[in-house]
């Protein structure tokens, strides 16, 4: 009997006690509709992670923590970094955006490499690349070198972040995956929201370089843990190193990464650095769009082993779910950036207090994320959880419109808790929905496209947030007979605003312009939340009662299989990730 169980033609269910965990074997070919018989419900609910699985989860939590922390910790430290590196406003923008852009575009390709070379080698390489980028950022005093360091960090961070979800899909059955995914998502959410607080503390009380020094303990821990516990075998015939290199879709990867970079650069420039009507904005967007279309044609008709699986986009449910992920990424990053900005401009808060004020969102997100994961496992359905999350998100973003200069903490703290609660069920249900709706052989790629669409939403959120805020602030400044040019340097002007007397009429007018601009931005974000709810109605319910379908399996499972000899369907012994292969 094969432990993986995907090769049979009949549905079957067995359990084995392997290394302390209760493993399921169920053969279900592809996504299953809700009408599927649920007679084996109790067997799926009885699965528990063993010691091996929990050690890997702890490792993945540490990876998610450091990657998310690095993505947000620099926000309050940007002014200090800009002064230290003699960067202007445009250059300061790219200190944060370069990481997001590179991190987004490399994720699908790095997951493809992990499918070829193994999860552990690619995860270790990603952690190593991230660490190298961190070192560059720590030691340089040159802006150009710093951007190189942030881009290198983006490659490692993007790969590591994508592989967290992929490895979880390798070791945890789909029905149980939500509650364990909640653990890593909780780590990501905690770091993403507390990052601005930590960055504020460092920028106020020590050097901004501590925003990078803090990465090193996490990187060392994650590297050692990955080496020791992420031991997966590839359940397929062994390939030589040459065969693996030749199987890489180099042309598709180049087209995708170059085109996505061009497209996102144009999007990030538009409305903030350059007008949308200028060639500096239009040209990279057009080139990126043409390149991405060319990439899709190549993947469909030219590539023998495409790295970007178009089969993931053949159902209405998958497309709607990916769009919802994009919207949630956009909303999340806009809130993480503009809420601390609101407190600094309208409430005269320090960078530290601005970050601390996000704790209400952290509490709401933590409780709802874990609760939603447990609930999804218990009931085996995700659609109503997703709809409920979007309804709460509309409510939370709508309540943010009430933020003004005079709103007391007794009002905005409950609002932030609602905002946090809304993201938990939305995040968890989308992760599970996408994997449930994907073909069984593409689950790991579905997980990588999830992280890519989320990162893409964050990158686009930078552009949309900046465009909306700058344009509306220019309007409000003109209405109040104030210089509209300040809108293009709104972040830098906060330091000048803080030097004005609190009760001066001039400061009150500037603060009013800021408050009205934030209100307009939150109105736009509420509209995006409404769009998310409408899109979620297109999503269909699929069964979560599916077995482990990855060819990357824990070594103890393969070991048990090998006790009675190799599986005839394989033809030879499964390939170990520790084996580099020999030239044939």
From TrEMBL:
InterPro entries found in the cross-reference section: MFS, MFS_dom, MFS_trans_sf, Sugar_transporter_CS
TM helices/strands, residue ranges: 54-79, 91-110, 122-148, 154-174, 186-206, 212-234, 246-269, 281-301, 321-343, 355-377, 384-407, 413-434, 518-539
Subcellular compartments: Membrane
Gene Ontology molecular function terms on file: transmembrane transporter activity
Pfam family, any one: MFS_1
Region annotated Disordered, chain positions: 563-584
CDD domains per the UniProt record, alphabetical: MFS_Azr1_MDR_like
Membrane topology: Multi-pass membrane protein
One of the record's GO cellular component terms: plasma membrane
Keywords linked to the UniProt accession: Membrane, Transmembrane, Transmembrane helix
Coiled coil: none
Residue ranges constituting the Major facilitator superfamily (MFS) profile domain according to the UniProt record: 56-544
PANTHER family, sorted: MAJOR FACILITATOR SUPERFAMILY, MAJOR FACILITATOR SUPERFAMILY (MFS) PROFILE DOMAIN-CONTAINING PROTEIN
Name of the featured protein: MFS general substrate transporter
Organism annotation: Hyaloscypha variabilis (strain UAMH 11265 / GT02V1 / F)
């Amino acid at each position: 009997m094969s432990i993986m169980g995907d090769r049979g033609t009949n549905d079957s269910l067995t359990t084995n006690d392997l290394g302390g965990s209760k493993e399921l074997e169920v053969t279900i070919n592809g996504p299953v509709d809700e009408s599927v018989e649920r007679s084996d419900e109790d067997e799926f609910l009885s699965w528990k992670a063993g010691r091996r699985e929990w050690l890997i989860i702890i490792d993945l939590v540490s990876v998610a923590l450091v990657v998310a922390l690095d993505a947000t910790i620099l926000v309050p430290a940007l002014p200090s970094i800009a002064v230290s590196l003699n960067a202007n406003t445009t250059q300061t923008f790219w200190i944060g955006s370069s990481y997001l852009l590179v991190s987004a575009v490399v994720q699908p390709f790095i997951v493809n490499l992990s499918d070829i070379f193994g999860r552990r080698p690619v995860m270790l390489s990603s952690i190593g690349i991230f660490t190298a980028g961190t070192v560059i950022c720590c030691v340089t005093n040159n802006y150009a070198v710093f951007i190189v360091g942030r881009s290198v960090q983006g490659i490692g961070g993007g790969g590591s972040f994508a592989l967290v979800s992929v490895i979880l899909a390798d070791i945890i059955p789909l029905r149980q995956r939500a509650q364990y995914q909640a653990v890593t998502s909780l780590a990501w959410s905690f770091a993403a929201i507390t990052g601005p607080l930590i960055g504020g503390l460092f920028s106020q009380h020590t050097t901004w370089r501590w925003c990078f020094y803090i990465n090193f303990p996490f990187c060392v821990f994650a590297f050692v843990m990955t080496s020791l516990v992420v031991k997966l075998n590839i359940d397929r015939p062994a390939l030589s190193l040459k065969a693996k290199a030749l199987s890489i879709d180099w042309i598709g990867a180049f087209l995708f990464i170059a085109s996505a970079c061009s497209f996102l650069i144009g999007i990030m420039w538009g409305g903030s650095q350059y007008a949308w009507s200028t060639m500096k904005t239009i040209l990279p967007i057009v080139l990126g769009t043409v390149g991405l279309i060319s990439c899709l044609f190549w993947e469909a008709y030219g590539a023998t082993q495409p790295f970007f699986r178009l089969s993931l986009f053949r159902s209405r449910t998958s497309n709607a779910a990916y769009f919802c992920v994009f919207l949630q990424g956009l909303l999340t990053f806009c809130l993480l950036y503009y809420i601390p900005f609101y407190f600094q401009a309208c409430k005269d808060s320090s960078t530290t207090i601005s970050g601390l004020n996000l704790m209400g969102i952290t509490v709401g997100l933590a409780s709802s994320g874990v609760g939603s994961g447990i609930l999804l496992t218990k009931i085996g359905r995700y659609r109503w959880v997703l709809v409920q999350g979007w309804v709460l998100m509309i409510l939370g973003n709508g309540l943010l419109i009430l933020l003004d200069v005079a709103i007391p903490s007794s009002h905005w703290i409950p609002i932030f808790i609602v905002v946090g609660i809304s993201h938990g069920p939305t995040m968890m249900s989308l992760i599970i929905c996408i994997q449930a709706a994907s073909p069984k052989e593409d689950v790991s790629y579905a997980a990588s496209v999830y992280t890519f669409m989320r990162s893409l939403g964050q990158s686009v959120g930078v552009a949309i947030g900046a465009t909306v805020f700058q344009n509306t602030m220019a309007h409000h400044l003109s209405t109040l007979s104030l210089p509209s040019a300040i809108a293009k340097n709104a972040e830098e002007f906060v330091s000048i605003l803080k030097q004005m007397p609190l009760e001066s009429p001039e400061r009150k007018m500037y603060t009013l312009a800021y408050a009205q601009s934030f209100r307009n931005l939150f109105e736009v974000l509420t509209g995006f939340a409404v769009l998310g709810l409408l899109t979620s109605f297109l999503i269909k319910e699929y069964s979560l009662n599916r077995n482990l379908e990855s060819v990357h399996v824990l070594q103890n499972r393969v070991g048990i299989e090998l006790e009675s000899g190799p599986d005839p369907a394989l033809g030879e012994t499964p390939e170990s990730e520790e084996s580099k292969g020999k030239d044939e």
